[in-house]
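To assess whether the prediction recovers the assembly geometry, we first specified each molecular entity separately, as shown.
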Amino acid sequence: MSHDVYVALAYGITAIVIAALILWVVLDQRARRAELSELEARGVRRRSDAAPASETDHGV
Amino acid sequence: MTTTTAGNTFTNLANPTRFLNLSGTVLPWMAGVTALLFAVGLFMAFTAPEDYQQGVTVRIMYIHVPAAWLSMMCYTVMAISAIGTLVWRHPLADVSAKAAAPIGAAFTFLALITGSLWGKPMWGAWWAWGDARLTSVFVLFLMYLGLIALIRAIPDPSRAVRLTAIVILVGFVNIPIIKFSVEWWNTLHQPASVIRLDGPSIHPSMLYPLLVMALAFTMLFFTLHFSAMRAEIWRRRVASMRRRAAQAAA
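The predicted structure of the complete assembly is given in tokenized form:
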């Protein structure tokens, strides 16, 4: 196998893995935001939303 | 600034809501800088001279070395987060560790694969189990997979947080082993050529592209890490809101 093939394979696999990582992060964010929006549309609120205490809200 | 004020500033910066607002502002810029660094780094990598011994395969160095550095840096970030979890019990520290694990696993996988693709034409072997550097990095990859499995396996979040933090800190012993394995044992792997007490031994025509690519990988890591942390915060909020909705319905 030519040395160029090893280089091409290394860069190709790296590009695929990085693209997959970016896609996973973006899709995960979109899915979670959609879930949050759906719950908020149904009127469900977080406990901390009941009190105006965002500065001291350390809960996630 | 008093200790209390410094502590308050740290606590306020680590507030999840504040983190979401701040990261939402800086993430587009970070993504832009990452893309720019990759464009410049790849141009420099493919216009850099070939090595007089390794020929064109030296170009694998510009992705293999940054991926290997990032595999260790990511675990270090997780170890710092684990200390944050155990000492300050801050939820954002746990979010950070959990979000970093899959990214670290991906960078370690890349370091192993690109190393193997570089090793075959240079050493005549895809892999050598007796090599301390290769084996210790493979152990790091297994540790990442084990931590991902551990985080998902424990249903009680408070127990998972503490146990995961302890396992991360115990596993941190592997990081200096990886770093110094090429000095402590006889290995196929070359010794350190960039981070050395007497300065880099690599020629500037190859060092500068390598440093730009390392910076690009580092920016990519933080961009992905911040994004994954945002998704994790939202995941926990969704879980919390669902519990609240279920309690209200009962």
